[in-house]
Amino acid sequence: MKKLTLILGILVAANILYAQGKREAIREKAELRIEEFKERLNLNEDQVKELKALKESMKPELDAIRDDEAKARSEKMRARADLMEKRETEVARILNEDQMAELEVIKKEMKEKMETRRNERKKKRGGR
Q: What is the DSSP secondary structure assignment for residue 1, as one 8-state letter?
């Protein structure tokens, strides 16, 4: 019985550590993305601070949408889209016209990259 408890404890601990590692990797990736945006958009420190504050202020709202089990998936998607639209309005307030134009280029590149990955996965699965 003690061995079983020990094994279960180790599995739970390993799972927690894995999840924490995954979260940390996501945070690191987000920080790298911020640095990339900072360089490509030629952001000043005030803009970086405002954009980070905007991200942090919206996190609880996004979490609430994700965790709301009373809403259907389509309702959650709509609520998230509304929140992203609000974010875009705020980003447009923070950036100048040239920065917004470059941001649109970056978004287009990201969309194309996602589409390429999606097509590659479809090919691997047999074209479904």
A: -
